[in-house]
Amino acid sequence: MRDLIDFIAESESTDKLPKLGFSAGISSCVLQRYAAIVGSSCPPHSGQAPLLLDAGAGTGGISWWISRNAPCNAVAVDYAATACKLGAERFGGMPTSLRFVVGDLCRLPFLSQSFSAAISIDALYLLPDPDAGLAELARVLFPNAPLIFTLLCSTAQQAEVERSWISRLGRHQFGFLRSTDMTRRWRLEIRRRHSARWAKRHQILCQAGPAAAEELTVTRAILGIGGRVPLIDSTCRLELHAVRC
Ligand SMILES: C[S@@+](CC[C@H](N)C(=O)[O-])C[C@H]1O[C@@H](n2cnc3c(N)ncnc32)[C@H](O)[C@@H]1O
């Protein structure tokens, strides 16, 4: 698995971004925007650095980048122990204030009011019960803490999905700030990554072994190779900003 992640990340990395593992569709200017918000979030006691929670962090590439580029500490939580282990191996040795914790977003292993900001990149919306995840985020965040999360949905349902998240935020002590349609940027980035992946498919299969075949199946569907409608063209990506009331 690690060979596959490394090889794919290596083949897709650009000079603008380091290898962030599977984190996709995030450009350096988006990361800078997140870092600015997290860096200016305020812990209640003066003198403390902001503390970021990356909820559903995967291998933690995004929180690693933020913790290197903003004056903050970060905790990356994911229930996939393998992802946390890979992230700790990849980023743990580098000078950073990022810590990995294995845990469930619906039962976060943290005290109430511990974090001054949270991000959840393409993770919160995957929960079978997103309300439980939001309730937990509300519990562990300080009042006034920013929350940024992204989600993917079908283009046909975009307006309905957006409305349902806005009302869900209201039910869980979050004030909705804004929603940004990131679809165009996301599609460009995903197309770039998967095209690079597809162009190197023989090399990937040789070097990363049979596990890569599944990844390449995803690539086929996303790009619409073989005459199918590209999945990417009927999917949109939203970025929502809220604040803990
Ligand atoms: C699409 S990945 C996104 C990973 C990372 N945020 C990124 O952008 O690279 C979704 C992540 O959410 C995690 N996840 C899903 N449900 C979870 C839960 N209940 N508790 C913790 N993590 C969860 C998965 O293990 C996976 O790493």
Commentary on this structure:
- The chain is an alpha/beta fold.
- The chain has one domain (18-182, 234-244): 3-Layer(aba) Sandwich (Rossmann fold).
- It is built from nine helices and seven strands.
- It has helices at residues 2-12, 28-39, 61-69, 81-91, 130-140, 158-171, 183-199, 201-208, 211-223; strands at residues 51-55, 73-78, 98-102, 117-120, 146-154, 174-181, 235-244.
- A seven-stranded mixed beta sheet has the order 3-2-1-4-5-7-6, sandwiched between helices.
- Helix 4 links the parallel strand 2 (73-78) and strand 3 (98-102).
- Helix 7 crosses helix 9 (211-223) and helix 8 (201-208) runs antiparallel to helix 9.
- The chain is globular.
- The N and C termini lie far apart (41 Å).
- Residues 14-18 have low confidence and may be disordered.
- Bound molecules: S-adenosylmethionine (SAM).
- Residues in helices, as a percent range: 40-55%
Q: Which range does the strand content fall in?
A: 15-25%
For the residues shown, what is the average pLDDT?
89
- Overall geometric form: globular
Order of helices and strands: HHEHEHEEHEHEHHHE
Record field, number of beta strands: 7
Distance between the termini: 41 Å
CATH class: Alpha Beta
Coarse structural class: alpha/beta
Q: What compounds are bound to the protein?
A: S-adenosylmethionine
Question: How many individual domains?
Answer: 1
Main sheet properties: 7 strands, mixed
Q: Which radius of gyration do the C-alpha atoms yield?
A: 18 Å
Order the strands across the largest sheet as they lie in space.
3-2-1-4-5-7-6
Examine the secondary-structure arrangement and name the CATH architecture. Answer: 3-Layer(aba) Sandwich
pLDDT below 50 for ≥5 consecutive residues: which ranges? 14-18
What is the CATH fold-level name? Answer: Rossmann fold
CATH superfamily: Vaccinia Virus protein VP39
By DSSP (H or I, 4+ residues per run), the number of helices equals 9
